[in-house]
Amino acid sequence: MNSGLFKKILPHLIAVIVFLVVTLIYFYKPLVDGYVMNQSDIVRWKGIAQNAFEYKAKHGHFPLWNSNLFSGMPNYQVAMEGKSILPDIPKIMSLGLPKPLNFFFLCCICFYILCISFRLKPVIGILGGLAFAFSTYNMVVVGAGHESQILAIAFMPFLLAGMIFTFEKKYWLGLVITILGAYLEIAVNHVQISYYFMLIAVAVTIPYLVTWIRKKDWKHIFITAGIVLGAALIGVAASAVTLLTTYEYAKATMRGGKDISIEGDKVTKAKTSGLDTSYAFQYSYGKAEVVNILMPEAFGGSSNKMLDENSHVVEKLTAKGIPEGTAMQIPPYLSRYWGGIIEYTAGPFYYGVIICLLALIAFIVIKTPLRWGLLAVSVLGIMMAWGKYLPGFNSFLFEHLPFYNKFRAPSMAMVITQFTVPIIAVLGLQQLLYRENSRGLLKADFKKILYTVGGLFVLLLIMYMAMSYSSPIDNEIASGISQQAKSDEIGRAVIAGMKEDRRNLFGAQILRAFGFALLLIGLLFLYIRKLIKPLVVAISLVVITTIDLLVVDKGYLNNENFVSPEELSSENFVPSVIDQQILQDRDPDFRVFNAGVNMLQDARTSYFHKSIGGYHPARLRIYQDIIDKYLSGGGNQNILNMLNTKYIIVTNRQNNQQQLIPNPNAYGPCWLVKNVKIAQDVVEEIQAIGTTNLRDTAIVQKSFESAIIQPQWDSAATVKLIKFDNDTMEYSFNSTKPQFAVFSEVYYPYGWNAYIDGKKTAYCKTDYVLRGLSVPAGQHSIKFVFEPSTFKKGVTIAYVSSFLILILVAGGLFMEWRTSRKNTA
After folding, report:
1. Three-state secondary-structure class, residue 813
2. Mean pLDDT of 226-243
3. What stretches of 386-467 show up as alpha helix (H) in DSSP?
4. How far is CA 406 from CA 100, 148, 217, 398, 754, in A?
5. pLDDT at 256 over 80
6. Cβ-contact 330, 316 below 8 angstroms
7. Distance between CA atoms of 370 and 423, rounded to whole angstroms?
8. Which residues have CB under 8 Å from 272's CB, separation 6+?
9. Of the candidates 279, 274, 257, 247, which has an alpha carbon nearest to the alpha carbon of residue 74?
10. How many degrees, rounded to 5, is the angle at CA 435 between CA 11 and CA 433?
């Protein structure tokens, strides 16, 4: 090999090896033991996707409709395959590493490529890659099984790298990486993370654009715009099948707004275009909680971490006369977490003390306008993460920022700073160590750095002294304990003890951060005094930051998250005695209601049966209304019957064992009614189905009246399901008079078509959530077919785009090689 070429490649090869070694060390034991991750979201996904995989095994392709969750919904929201000639690029980029190693290696490599686009030293790229990859939130995401989210996070720096190469006039390389980055970012289908990246991309672009305009470099502006926007459009087109179907589906879901508001027994009209703010602003980040980025345990870490017997709660309770043995039993039931996310949090957004301090210092040493773009979007991300704790600002964004009202969990916006803070940090470190006359300039800035870091810790000390250490859940905790102990004084004592614990924890985290600050300042001081070289400083920071992050990360993703494949299967995918009893029923179409669990989290029932519950973050709006009104309190019998709920699983309170209750009153997959009652609006419609005998009377909203012919009752008339296929249902019908048939299938207007004797026929939404069809007298064949045009159109666009991507990437690489060779010559 050419020695010059080897010298160029060697630093990058070392970086790849470092990333591999760190990743392998972290996951060494479970990898050697052959264990797999026990990820709750993946387990649930397997539950709801099992029907689709069984269908594929039988038919050779995934169905478009999944009948096993929430009485039926589009399967392309669960498991989908498109058509493409492109290879598995993420697998190639991650060197074929198994999960979860591949996620962290991808994060490292993609951020390293971004650092190369900024022309940073490889050792600084290694620091940035490791800091970005092993940021604690990534551990939380992977541990929960949010795999599309971690992939979307991983590809953000890769896509930005393509943009930076283009901005720096490396057009061919920029074209290749931007196209691949856009394709990969969008293809993983985590729209919320991609949305945050778009905000970052805009913030990064503006400072460059201002510079180009000042220089009147119009040619570069047009070339850059053509490459970036063209690459984005091609990336979107390559994921057309996902985007088109998701956009269409969203209109019919909770994210598309609602027509009614349900509060207990009261139903009123409503008209919204997105999620409810009360729902969307769940998981809002507490304002002071932002200090987690450099103090991981300042707010207790996670909801799973509990107090121990050394808690001040014991001291406060014993002072109230509670025996010490009894008092020591209480802390293990109290969470250490006291931040703003009331619902549940699995861990903090921790980026590493060194990284945060370097980012802070960077604003002193970096003179480029890019810092202001990164600062602006970082502040925006934090303010968005505050959600309900900054209601005026976030309500305005929710109502006016395009598509923003489709997302929930504001705390996720901290992903913006998770990305921007390491960028600012590595840019700053490059300036500190490798700019011309770096020692002299650093010496001149050293007092400013000391004042800045000192000011940060003065602010933290003020917070330490000024905070009340109260939590939004304190009243709930105090109330529960007071009721149990029959004493308000005991409840107040527990909260007082918890506040002492929180104060001590916050103080300890300040001291921890201060220790790392002394290390950083000490290294910079030694560098100024010429006692160590810049490479030694950089390597030291790599080691310190990596150890810091990995130690913290072990509290959120460790060996306990792994189990043997056999254990994973036996705990989740082996049918119980109840399941086996139900599976003996060969009826082609019926549903099961597991009343012993939360029906919105019940993916296990979906693994074995057609369930009226399930697990999916975007449920059909009309079905969610039915859940809120009639099923959340244990199940309205009328509604269970119309949903063809043949079996109900309950939990026996005496022995905590499951018990099967057959429901002989279920209406079956289809039935004929004696009359159709017209409801004037959605409020009347949903209220009527709870009090009407739906076996005899169908409820249809007035807007569908034109598709209805009032039935003429014929006691000998029949309608019967003769074939059930996820995407096709066939029925036989026979009557001497016109009838109205109700089908126990969820109404979804975007793709389901009805045919009578092969002729397409209008049908209507019936009983609020089902399908109804007027059928003329005679003997007829009825067929419902799911044939969404968006899916077919999306597959075609994506397939054609995959050819275009391959041609442009191959051509771009060739032109980059040719240009590079010419420049070398």
Report:
1. helix
2. 92
3. 391-400, 414-434, 438-466
4. 29, 17, 38, 9, 31
5. no
6. no
7. 10
8. 257, 258
9. 247
10. 65
**pLDDT of amino acid 2:** 63
Nearest to 44 by CA among 409, 412, 573: 573
Residue 350 contacts residue 296 (beta carbons within 8 Å): yes
Q: Where would I find the beta strands (DSSP E) of 544-596? A: 562-563, 591-594
- Per-residue pLDDT reduced to its tens digit, 283-321: 999 999 999 999 999 999 999 999 988 899 999 999 888
Q: Read off the tokens for 270.
A: 């409503």
Q: How far apart are CA 221 and CA 633, in angstroms?
A: 59
Q: How far apart are CA 735 and CA 780, in angstroms?
A: 9
Comparing CA positions, the residue from 823, 807, 662, 818 lying closest to residue 179 is 807
**Mean predicted confidence (pLDDT) in 352-356:** 97
Q: Which of 516, 466, 210 is CA-nearest to residue 353?
A: 516
Q: Are 460 and 151 in contact (CB under 8 A)?
A: no
- Confidence check: pLDDT of 1 > 60: no
Q: How do residues 530-587 score in pLDDT, each as one tens digit?
A: 999 999 999 999 999 999 999 999 999 999 889 898 888 888 899 999 999 999 998 8
Alpha carbons 241 and 238: distance in angstroms, whole number: 8
pLDDT at 824: 66
pLDDT at 825 over 70: no
* Polymer length in residues for the chain: 825
Note whether 37 and 562 are within 8 A (CB).
Answer: yes
Stated as kind and residue range, the H or E segment containing 354 is helix 353-365
Phi, psi of 782 (to 5 degrees): -115, 135
Predicted local distance difference test score (pLDDT) of residue 822: 76
| pLDDT bucket at 641, cuts 50 / 70 / 90 | very high
Rounded to an integer, what distance in angstroms lies between the CA atom of residue 799 and that of residue 577? 46
Calpha distance 639→644 (Å, rounded): 9
> Is the distance from CB of 60 to CB of 589 less than 8 angstroms?
no
> Residue 37 — φ and ψ, nearest 5°?
-80, 140
| Count of beta carbons in the 10 Å neighbourhood of residue 511 | 10
User: Could you tell me whether strands 752-756 and 675-679 are parallel, antiparallel, or unpaired per DSSP bridges?
Assistant: unpaired
Give the residue with greater pLDDT, 368 vs 374: 374
pLDDT score recorded for residue 128: 97
CA–CA distance, 450 with 648 (Å, rounded to integer): 67
pLDDT tens readout for residues 449-498:
999 999 999 999 999 999 999 999 999 898 888 888 788 888 899 999 99
Please check whether residue 799 is in contact with residue 257, taking contact to mean a CB–CB distance below 8 angstroms: no
Which among 48, 43, 16, 42 has a CA at the least distance from the CA of 116? 16
* DSSP H or E run through 414: helix 414-434
> With bands split at pLDDT 50, 70 and 90, how would you rate the model's confidence at 748?
very high
Q: Please, which residues have CB within 8 angstroms of residue 520's CB and are 6 or more apart in sequence?
A: 354, 357, 358, 541
Pairing between strand 697-701 and 675-679?
parallel
Q: Are 740 and 704 in contact (CB under 8 A)?
A: no
Whether the Cβ atoms of residue 414 and residue 381 lie closer than 8 Å to each other: yes
Strand positions, DSSP E, 560-713:
562-563, 591-594, 645-651, 658-662, 670-673, 675-679, 697-701
Report the alpha-carbon angle 266-278-338, nearest 5: 130
Q: Which pair of structure tokens corresponds to residue 652?
A: 């026996």
- pTM, whole model, 2 decimals? 0.93
pLDDT averaged over the chain?
92
Beta strand segments in 545-657, E: 562-563, 591-594, 645-651
Instruction: Give the strand pairing for 645-651 and 591-594.
Output: parallel
Whether the bond into 100 is cis, omega within 30 of 0: yes
pLDDT digits over 95-152, tens only? 999 999 999 999 999 999 999 999 999 999 999 999 999 999 999 999 999 999 999 9
What distance, in Å, lies between the first and last C-alpha atoms of the chain?
18
- How far is CA 525 from each of CA 222, 512, 528, 532, 533, rounded to the nearest angstrom? 46, 20, 5, 9, 11
